[in-house]
Design a protein that fits this description.
4-stranded mixed beta sheet; Pnp Oxidase, Chain A; mainly beta
């Protein structure tokens, strides 16, 4: 008997949404889990006439907590080759896309995918173009978001398939590690985490009724929703969308540019532009500069949906989460830079600190921040534009070289607006 071990290096991740499957490479350190909510009953009584005091307890499983998942991806824009969509290609036209774009689209409210773009109710969430692709929160003011399934294929032999059902993207964090490659840390929830290996079949051709045996790994007849791992193509994962002799069909797949080496972005080239109104309190005196020159040493932008999952509370059964609702959408972050003073200018980081500190009668300031990750005009790059940021007064960090750290919140132009941030991918 041989013991089977599973190594994270042998794992692959797939996302199923709207009858398509995306293969998305993830970095080491991915995780998924689901815990149980339990309750405890204890006895606490005085002594009986026989001098006995019962001190027992019982425990009950009440429900499954929402599944939790997290992983990181690189920021990887590319220009589609324009091949037939669904056979690997992201677009039939030579337009800009990103390997991880399905995650952004689902975070921003998309519930439909078609013609190489994501939308909600016919309104675009992702707008691909010939020179850039833009992502907006315009359709994210919803009580629920689009859900999807995540599949992790573990191991090189005796593969195990884990399925995370009804997933939502809760948070995405873009970190500016000065010596690293631009990455995004994703996290979210799911209704259930299921070992789906029994509903899987490994073979070289599409599952069909002529197979012998026409069964998945658990010995049952294959059905819509079962998984086929194509042994002729690196055990690529497909989900069956139709079954029956001669009518079998599986999900089309998208995996364009996942093996490219020219679409990585270096954080060290990142540029920040800061602009604001010169007279934020409208008193006739210019307290601020219209722009500031800040050279970053690090930073972060975090997008969060603050989702919660709803679970029934029936007695006598272990309840499973049935769905989610969105919370307050938040976009926030921080940036760090050296404390600098330029005698020939008045818009260095020291001036920024002094000016922010001086406007004590402005309770909500407004700055336009644009992070150009990868360079001001270089390709590939990712631009995060936040036109109405509330910026806190910087704090000093006393190290070998004194630095400033500033926190900010990206706000919509109106309280019910959705224009906190726009993401724009540019590909080489």
């Amino acid at each position: 008997m041989a013991e089977q071990l599973y190594f994270s290096r042998d794992s692959k991740m797939y996302i199923e949404f709207d009858s398509y499957v995306w293969e998305v490479p993830v970095l080491d350190g991915f995780s998924f889990s689901q815990a149980t909510n339990s309750s405890e009953i204890t006895l606490n009584e005085m002594e009986s006439s026989a001098g006995v005091s019962r001190r027992g307890r019982r425990a009950f499983n009440d429900s499954l907590a929402p599944g939790e998942w997290s992983f990181s991806t690189y920021v990887r824009p590319f220009v589609a080759a324009g091949a037939s969509q669904g056979t690997g290609s992201a677009d039939t036209a030579a337009e800009v896309h990103a390997v991880e774009e399905v995650l952004w689209a689902l975070m921003m409210g998309a519930d439909n995918y078609g013609s190489a773009a994501f939308d909600r109710g016919g309104s675009a969430v992702v707008t691909p173009g010939g020179s850039s692709s833009s992502f907006t929160f315009g359709q994210s003011n919803k009580s629920t978001l689009g859900t999807f399934n995540i599949y992790f294929v573990l191991g090189e032999a005796n593969r195990k398939v884990m399925k995370l059902t009804d997933c939502t993207v809760n948070e995405a964090s873009v970190d500016f590690d000065i010596d690293g490659i631009a990455t995004i840390a994703w996290s979210g929830n799911s209704s259930e985490v299921i070992d789906f290996t029994g509903s899987t079949k490994e073979q070289a051709n599409l599952l069909d009724a002529a197979d012998s045996p026409a069964q998945t790994a658990d010995g049952t007849a294959y059905a819509v929703g079962d998984v086929w791992l194509d042994s002729n193509d690196g055990y690529r994962l497909y989900v069956m969308t139709n079954v029956g002799d001669g009518t079998e069909a599986a999900t089309p797949y998208i995996n364009e540019a996942i093996t490219d080496t020219t679409n990585f972005i270096r954080n060290r080239l990142t540029v920040l532009t800061v602009t604001t109104a010169a007279d934020p309190d409208n008193d006739g005196t210019d307290e601020m500069q219209t722009s500031y020159s800040l050279t970053l040493t690090g930073g972060n932008v975090t997008f969060s949906n603050n989702n919660t999952y709803i679970t029934p509370e029936e007695l006598g059964i272990v309840n499973v989460p049935i769905g989610h609702v969105t919370g307050t959408r938040s976009v926030s972050g921080s940036l760090t830079c050296y404390l600098t003073k330029d005698t020939s200018a008045v818009n260095a980081s020291a001036d920024f600190f002094e000016d922010l500190r001086s406007i004590t009668n402005v309770v909500t300031n407004s700055f336009a921040l644009t992070f150009k990750i990868g360079g001001a005009s270089a390709t590939p790059r990712l631009e995060i534009s936040m036109p109405t940021c509330h910026v806190e007064i910087p704090t000093h960090s006393i190290e070998d070289v004194i630095s400033l750290e500033t926190n900010f919140m990206a706000l919509p132009s109106t309280i019910d607006g959705t224009n906190e941030a726009t993401l724009t991918y540019h590909a080489s």
